[in-house]
Amino acid sequence: MRLPVIETIEDVAQRQLCCGCGACAYVSPDAIEMIDSLGHGRRPRFKGPRRTRADDQEALRVCPGLGLEHTFDRSHPDLIRELVAGWGPVLEVWEGHATDDAIRFAGSSGGAASALALACIEQGGMHGVLHIKARTDAPYLNHTILSTTRKEILSATGSRYAPASPCDGLQLIEDAPAPCVFIGKPCDVAAVHKAKQVRPALAEKVGVTIAFFCAGTPTTNATLELLRRMGVDDPSQVVELRYRGNGWPGDATVRFRTENGIETRSLSYEESWGEVLTNDKQWRCHVCADHTGEFADIAVGDPWYRRAEPGECGQSLVLVRTERGRRILREAIEAGYLALTRADASILPRSQPNLLRGRGAVWARILVNRLMGVPAPRYRGFPMFRFWLAKLTLVEKLRSILGTARRAMRRGLRDRTVIVPFMAHDLTTEPCLQFVSDKRADSEVAVSQAA
Ligand SMILES: Cc1cc2nc3c(=O)[nH]c(=O)nc-3n(C[C@H](O)[C@H](O)[C@H](O)COP(=O)(O)OP(=O)(O)OC[C@H]3O[C@@H](n4cnc5c(N)ncnc54)[C@H](O)[C@@H]3O)c2cc1C
Ligand code: SF4
Ligand code: SF4
Predict the structure, then answer these.
(1) Which of 155, 170, 265, 359 is the most buried (most CB within 10 A)?
(2) Tell me: the pLDDT tens digits for 120-176?
(3) Chain centre to alpha carbon of residue 249
(4) Ligand 1 pocket test: which of 145, 212, 281, 338 has the largest number of ligand atoms within 8 Å of its C-beta?
């Protein structure tokens, strides 16, 4: 079947190849802004009149949604060979945590990402860290910030299992008086990697990139469902929402206004991530081949090769991917920001077996999509078929084929979807109706166009 041609950023978003990184808004700030859409995530919106194909060329060059290509030096003597095919370039594997107790406690895993950023600013001569945190006016949504102090970094710790577009703030790095740290999901870091190639001024100012492992971004609708499960029907009353952290892995916790004052409710990690959030992810995550930040200098994740004991403090799994990452990690350890020990390479696949199976399933999903006329990302240098063959059971193999075909029909992937913008302040008037109507609008448009 003939595949639709992707020529513009609008095509990327409407064909559901967008992962919401925000890089197109950085390279075309006069034309593109990032907006929230309940059923999709952070998405680009054109501010002015419709643009031409030529206008979009630079934005398309930095877009990770379209695909990724590895160009790292495969002859590097320190590459851990057995990890390359499934996990990209890895020079060293470490395990440990931030030495700052407050950062370790508040951090998602062991606070390694925040501790590294702090070390770069306090000891490494860097200016700040570009990352994301909850909005103060609507804490169930995120925004991009450039933090320059420990207090600011601490206030942005913890995973936010919700749409975020840190690359929409890359101009802040370009304009900074000294190099900066960038923290984001693998697709965000891949976008920075691409953007550095077209913007030398940015390349000069990116001091280090830190990616965290990512199994997928749940939509804002998933967060609203999580709030409902915690007894919050009106999100405009939310004062604070954390998805995890404050312990390891930590509970999802909401503080919200009621007639009797501020109430707090929580759900365990297994209930919040496992039963609610993971069921409603943006489509692009289902065809994502890089879940571990293969374009980053340093990648961090959870060392799930052993279960956390109740009350145990957080631990991080840390991958050094480049020489720059190696130097920066060494300096942070020597300056006392991180307590890490060298780990055996096998703890990576033992910690994240689902990510390796996911990489295999992506091979089948992309194939089925293309056969059905659904555009899919293009990957170069990402072996996938061997993991589909070796890591998936027969049932999983069948599911990766039949499930994809079913999803493509159900989600209307063969047709353009319409991105319905969502404004948080709408909540103050008709809180719950707004969610329902936005959600229905997204799916209704997709279905009606498919018909
Ligand atoms: C959507 C999502 C899926 C994940 N899936 C996995 C997984 O499958 N396996 C695994 O091991 N780990 C996963 N993680 C990562 C893990 O939860 C930890 O975030 C990671 O180990 C870093 O922990 P830390 O203590 O070093 O980070 P911290 O020191 O707490 O710092 C976290 C940093 O991440 C930034 N951040 C938080 N949420 C987002 C976001 N949505 N987008 C961009 N930046 C953000 C914050 O601004 C902060 O700078 C996921 C995280 C997210 C957000
Ligand atoms: S993936 Fe990033 S660069 Fe591509 S359209 Fe989406 S927000 Fe823009
Ligand atoms: S699964 Fe992949 S595409 Fe989805 S948010 Fe994570 S890194 Fe981005």
Answers:
(1) 170
(2) 999 999 999 999 999 999 999 999 999 999 999 999 999 999 999 999 999 999 999
(3) 18
(4) 212
